[in-house]
Design a protein that fits this description.
Immunoglobulin-like, Rossmann fold, 8-stranded mixed β-sheet, globular
């Protein structure tokens, strides 16, 4: 059994040193990491030529031999190579989870005799409309950061990045199926890539379907979607009519392109079979939040021609049907939308003049009353305004647990039906829905309307129609178009974009968030007003709740460590990435892991909770638990030895403020909305979001050397006290509200 310092492996066929026929040969074998390691993919190299492999077939014997504790080890590979006559040396390389290729075995052969015929070479993938337009969209947006690069250069670079074989493995008999997603060029949104297609078994049943890109764990796919369109093609298989599947696969940020997405089927006898491998050129969807550069018809035509030519020159056929033409026209229309320059951002007043009181009557519009960061932000603001004499009305399209806290500060709560606005299929229908909402609630019965998040755009429109002045808070570090995508009609996205212009002032709590809203067609009266944390309230709570009692409540023993991750369970918060990092930490630091507890706070009853729970069941982490969301959350900071914020996207996250105020060491994502508050190596340790190996290493470093975090925590507390304390910041927000109500801003 060949062995390196990081792997065990074996090439089963053709045997090393044997004589084989020239031409196409399939190498079959297996490779398994030594403790602490993890492998993602396999490829072969002969000289400078690289041959992609198909890695991850289940092997029960390998699992038993290495005592993995699982029924199968995803360890078997095969690679199709081209052998020239004469002595040949095949170098086999494995992709580690860190994202690096490493040589694990070199196999020598003698190639002679009649050329082998291992079947025809796979035909090039025929690009469909979504393959083409997603690539073109990426080229158009990439130009924004590379203004000196030609369209041809950008197109050639992307074309060279495409996987050499899109469908590396098609479903073998007795399976029949096809994947529609992922496309050749695809975006990873919060680490997730869409997987859609159909699959059925011609002689049995498929119990469950899974997908994975990292082989660390697998995400369940929902199987059984109606696919009646397939029945004319497979009349002998009635199951074809309900064979559609859909779901998401997680792609760690550190993996290089192309990414291989593997689909596994569990059959009725409990066997797990690899049924398809599709590769994709993946990019972070953050690039899609920014406007295109040079939005002229000539530029679109040049980019289009360059991309089309780059594909043709590489022999990649394109299906130019009606769907393709319609998709290109949609992209062209979006690209050519005019871009208005945003108004220069104003700084919030540094203090509330003593002679100025808040507006007497204020309407607060929230997108919901759930226990989430944005509604909690609005609740703090409501308490402050009420304490200074404002009469408040809170309007929301859904009820929630924050109704009582809002009512406790004297607010009247009104629940409205904004559903028709979000379902409006045309501009005319949107205006009708807004008019009905305006009749149902009087948005003009106040001196000021404050809306919270751009998803409360409906309140901006209704308030302006009623002649009210509007201060709009935007917390989303993304644009309405990127946020909503295909989930609402285009007319609704337009309303959200228009609301940013209609509001008399739009307040952003970070510069990173403001930059996202200087986009197509928007001219925003922007105000930069930082977020805050009530330091005095936290100190009083901590004084009444001793740390040791809190740790005992969580079952933490004196010699144990506690790591908490606080935030609503959702894709944006990065919990899928975090639990993978914990799994790696456990495997690579077993002694430290044995005395470390991890708690995720923020569980709900949502599809993403179901996805996370399925992943946790597969990983079977003995030291990680999920707690349901609770208003009693401060103990999760005060009891912890380390708090983490694993988000992919934030504006001014409460979890960061609260951890800093509690004096708890902080490990967080290195993203703009966080790094404006806590700086790497000064107040916190910041690592790239979604990089599971970097997170595992950071956890080990901070838990092995707790003094590092304890040195940063006092500096974090001092920064909060000086720059983000509620008694310093909230008066600035009140001053902005006064200025908007007084007409000092104009829409």
């Amino acid at each position: 059994m060949p062995e390196t310092n990081f792997s065990h492996s074996h090439v089963d066929a053709p045997a090393a040193g044997s004589t084989v026929a020239p031409g196409r040969q399939v190498l079959r074998g297996w490779v398994w990491p030594k403790p602490g390691g993890h492998f993602v993919d396999v490829r072969a190299r002969i000289g400078e030529k690289i041959f992609p492999g198909m890695h991850g077939r289940p092997r029960a014997d390998i699992a038993a031999h290495f005592k993995t504790g699982r029924p199968f080890a995803l360890a078997e590979f095969n690679v199709t190579v081209e052998l020239a006559p004469g002595p040949v040396e095949v170098v086999l390389e494995v992709l580690t989870l860190e994202g690096a290729w490493a040589v694990f075995q070199t196999v020598a052969y003698r190639s002679e005799g009649r050329a082998a015929t291992a079947g025809p070479m796979p035909a090039p993938h025929q690009l469909r409309w979504h393959d083409f337009t997603r690539g073109l969209d990426l080229i158009l947006r990439t130009r924004r950061a590379r203004l000196t690069a030609s369209w041809q250069t950008l197109a050639d670079e992307l074309a060279d990045d495409l996987p050499p074989s899109h469908d590396l493995m098609m479903p073998p008999q007795p399976f029949i199926g096809h994947a529609d997603e992922p496309s050749v060029v695809d975006a990873s949104r919060f680490g997730l890539v869409l997987v859609v297609g159909y699959l059925f078994h011609t002689a049995g049943t498929i119990k469950r379907l899974w997908a994975t890109a990292d082989l660390q764990t697998m995400e369940p796919l929902k199987l059984g979607r109606a696919t009646a369109n397939l029945l004319p093609h497979f009349p002998q298989y009635p199951v074809a009519g309900v064979s559609g599947y859909e779901g998401y696969v997680y792609v760690p940020a550190q993996l290089p392109n192309p990414v291989a997405v593997r689909i596994y089927a569990e059959t009725a006898d409990g066997a797990l079979q690899l049924v398809q491998i599709r590769t994709t050129r993946c990019h972070d969807s953050a690039v899609e939040k920014y406007p295109w550069a040079g939005a002229t018809p000539a530029d679109f035509a040049a980019a289009f021609a360059a991309w089309r030519g780059a594909l043709q020159s590489r022999g990649l056929p394109l299906i130019e049907d009606d769907e393709y033409r319609a998709a290109v026209e949609r992209l062209r229309t979006s690209y050519l939308r005019p871009i208005a320059r945003s108004a220069a951002p104003r700084r919030a007043p540094t203090a509330l003049p003593s002679a100025v009181r808040p507006p007497a009557r204020i309407i607060l519009a929230s997108h919901n009353l759930n226990l989430e960061g944005a509604p909690l932000f609005l609740l703090d603001l409501a308490r402050h305004l009420a304490a200074h004499g404002a009469a408040l009305t809170v309007v929301s399209p859904s009820d929630g647990v924050l109704r009582e806290p809002f009512a406790a500060c004297g607010a009247r709560i009104v629940i409205v039906d904004a559903g028709p606005v979000f379902r409006a299929a045309s501009d005319a229908a949107a205006q009708v829905a807004l008019a009905a909402l305006g009749r149902a609630f009087d948005f003009g019965a106040a001196d000021l309307v404050i809306t919270n998040t751009f998803t409360a755009f409906w309140a901006v429109h209704c308030a302006k129609a009623a002649g009210a002045r509007v201060l709009s808070y935007v917390h989303e570090s993304t644009t309405p178009a990127a946020f909503y995508r295909e989930h609402v009609p285009p007319a609704v996205v337009t309303l959200a974009e228009q609301a940013l212009v209609l509001a008399d002032a739009v307040s952003f709590t970070s510069e990173a968030t403001r930059r996202h809203h200087a986009g197509p067609g928007l001219s925003v009266n922007a105000v930069l007003s930082p977020g805050w944390v009530d330091v005095h309230r936290i100190d009083a709570w901590r004084a009444a709740n001793p740390r040791e009692a809190l740790r005992a409540r969580f079952g933490v023993k004196p010699d144990e460590l506690l790591v908490t991750n606080v935030g609503t369970i959702c894709d944006r918060k990065g919990q899928l990435s975090f639990v993978r990092a914990v799994d790696l930490f456990n495997r690579r630091q077993p002694a430290l892991a044995a005395r470390t507890k991890f708690i995720l706070l923020g569980g709900r009853d949502s599809p993403f909770d179901d996805l996370l729970n399925a992943v946790l069941a597969d990983l079977a982490l003995p030291n990680l638990t999920v707690h349901r969301e609770t208003p009693d959350f401060l103990g999760y900071y005060a009891a912890a030895d380390l708090t983490v914020c694993s988000s992919y996207e934030e504006s001014s996250p409460r979890v960061v403020f609260e951890a800093m105020a509690c004096g708890t060491p902080l490990l967080a994502s290195a993203i703009p909305g966080i790094s404006e508050i806590a700086r790497d190596g000064i107040e916190a340790v910041l690592v790239p979001p979604g990089d599971t190996t970097a997170w595992a290493e950071a956890l080990a470093r901070l838990l092995h050397s707790p003094g590092l975090g304890r040195d940063l925590a006092p500096q974090a507390r001092a920064r909060v006290e000086e720059e983000f304390a509620a008694d310093i910041v909230l008066p600035r927000h009140t001053a902005v509200a006064c200025a908007v109500a007084a007409g000092e801003f104009s829409s």
